[in-house]
Q: What sequence folds into this?
């Protein structure tokens, strides 16, 4: 009736009576003067009705309302509908206020209160990216429509029953921990034009951000991270689309938990080559690399073209001790790299490579070569003045070679090494070492082979040289020195070895016939390759 001519109230609010179902019990009242000059504008109208079993298609948030038990009140200025029903299949308390003439620019306002599970949030477009939320969320949603086809949405969230996570920042909130959220969105027509405010607050949680979208293409243009306090993270910054394509992130803060980010960055596996270009500028007082591993005063600049990292500048203090410096790809047209650390032991602990090295210096330099979609690093190591302490694998190797007096040093102050050199190539987490040499007063080691960081395995063969200084003196004897020693890096007293298998528990074998043989004879006893495809070309580290 209220949609009959000349009233047309249903069509005024965008409802097609054919899409509305249910029963109604109501009153319709008119008040007007009995005067032939009376027009429709002079007639006062009032409707009050109870709607039962109501179904309205696409009533709000592009969702259907069903099982509605609603009260309708209508006059010449506005219509109000409130009650209970299911909106998009979700039980909800609903209010709909419609002004027939905009009031302060407002044409309509919808509110809904209900509990949204994972599927319901997807329906209403309230889900977070990357499955960052799981479980029920109590939501209070208000949609206000203005003249000019503009709208805004304000959402209040009770997140206590939900589990939240930001895997990239190594943070999560389990169910049962109180937290609240808020979203304030701007819509142009049915398109999202801005996120004025998005926030989550709770114990140890303070996340606040805003975002802008393009007016023409409606694509995300910029995200402002006003505050990110999540677990060990305390940072802020911006992420913006670059005019030349891709994204730029400028991030600063007191702390960043990079545990998962670094694990994903260094994890071997197929490389995606369809990512957009990315530039990152970061400055952090503290960066966590993993449990008990952190760096201080971190300054980093990164550039990726979507296929590979093309430029890296990194400065930090591992565990607050010494300095680490990395430069890569800064020379146009080439991809040289230069790495140095003034505390080798602290750097190896920071990178979770080894906790059994103390002190020392290390530099590595070389170049990167792209072979198709693969990237290969080729370089040389040069280190000095470090000690190996503990090291169960080395202790086993020395024990099997019957160098027990040297092995005992590992449980004390450690075995000192004065120098470390070697050539290497690295690709997809696999490092191949050629002519690696480490030597000190007590021991010298030559080794060549492969370390697969992705599979946590190694396959190395080489030579152990005890009493390295004594062997070095013998090597300097004219005429017979080279015959006795067998070449640079070997010795009169030495043992050929092979280590293969898991990094923490490899199979170790020593050629006993080579232990006391002079250098010229020792080559007769060296191991043959266990796998001709994988074995290094060198023999016992010789030249």
A:
């Amino acid at each position: 009736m209220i949609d009959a001519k000349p009233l047309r109230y249903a069509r005024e609010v965008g409802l097609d009576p054919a899409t509305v179902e249910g029963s109604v019990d109501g009153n319709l009242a008119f008040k007007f003067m009995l005067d032939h000059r009376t027009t429709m504008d002079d007639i006062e109208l009032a409707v009050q009705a109870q709607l039962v079993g109501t179904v309205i298609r696409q009533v709000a948030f592009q969702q259907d309302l069903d099982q509605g038990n609603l009260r309708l009140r209508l006059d010449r200025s506005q219509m109000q509908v409130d009650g209970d029903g299911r909106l998009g299949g979700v039980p909800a308390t609903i209010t709909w206020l419609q002004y027939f003439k905009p009031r302060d620019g407002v044409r309509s306002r919808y509110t809904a209160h209900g509990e949204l599970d994972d599927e319901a949030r997807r329906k209403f477009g309230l889900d977070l990216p990357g499955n960052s939320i799981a479980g029920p969320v109590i939501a209070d949603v208000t949609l206000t429509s203005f003249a000019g086809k503009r709208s805004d949405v304000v959402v209040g969230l009770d997140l206590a029953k939900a589990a939240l996570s930001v895997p990239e920042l190594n943070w999560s909130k389990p169910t049962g921990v109180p937290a609240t959220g808020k979203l304030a969105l701007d819509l142009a027509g049915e398109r999202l034009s801005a996120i004025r405010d998005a926030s989550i607050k709770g114990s140890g949680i303070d996340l606040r951000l805003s975002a802008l979208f393009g007016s023409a293409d409606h694509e995300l243009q910029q995200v402002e991270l006003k505050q990110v306090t999540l677990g060990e993270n305390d940072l802020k910054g911006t992420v913006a689309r670059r005019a030349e394509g891709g994204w730029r992130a400028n991030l600063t803060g007191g702390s960043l938990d990079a545990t998962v980010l670094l694990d994903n960055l260094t994890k071997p596996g197929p490389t995606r080559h369809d990512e957009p270009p990315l530039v990152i500028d970061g400055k952090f007082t503290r960066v966590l690399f993993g449990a008990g591993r952190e760096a201080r005063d971190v300054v980093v600049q990164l550039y990726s073209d979507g296929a590979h990292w093309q430029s890296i500048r990194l400065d930090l203090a591992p565990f607050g001790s010494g300095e680490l410096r990395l430069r890569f790809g800064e020379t146009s047209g080439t991809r040289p790299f230069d790495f140095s650390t003034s505390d080798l032991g602290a750097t190896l602990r920071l990178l979770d490579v080894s906790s059994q090295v103390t002190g020392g210096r290390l530099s590595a330099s070389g170049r990167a070569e792209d072979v198709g979609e693969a990237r290969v690093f080729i370089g040389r190591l040069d280190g000095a003045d470090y000690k190996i302490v503990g090291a169960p694998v080395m202790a086993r190797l020395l024990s099997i070679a019957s160098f027990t007096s040297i092995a005992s040093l590992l449980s004390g102050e450690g075995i000192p090494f004065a120098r470390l050199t070697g050539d290497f190539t690295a690709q997809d987490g696999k490092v191949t070492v050629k002519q690696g040499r480490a030597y000190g007063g007590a021991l010298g080691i030559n080794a060549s082979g492969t370390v697969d960081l992705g599979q946590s395995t190694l396959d190395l063969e080489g030579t152990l040289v005890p009493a390295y200084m004594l062997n070095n003196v013998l090597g300097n004897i004219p005429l017979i020195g080279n015959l006795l020693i067998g070449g640079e890096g070997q010795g009169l007293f030495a043992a050929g070895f092979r280590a293969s298998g898991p990094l923490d528990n490899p199979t170790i074998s020593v050629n006993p016939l080579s232990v006391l043989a002079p250098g010229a004879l020792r080559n007769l006893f060296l191991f043959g390759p266990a796998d001709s495809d994988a074995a290094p070309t060198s023999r016992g580290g010789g030249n």
In short: The chain is about 10% helix and 55% strand.
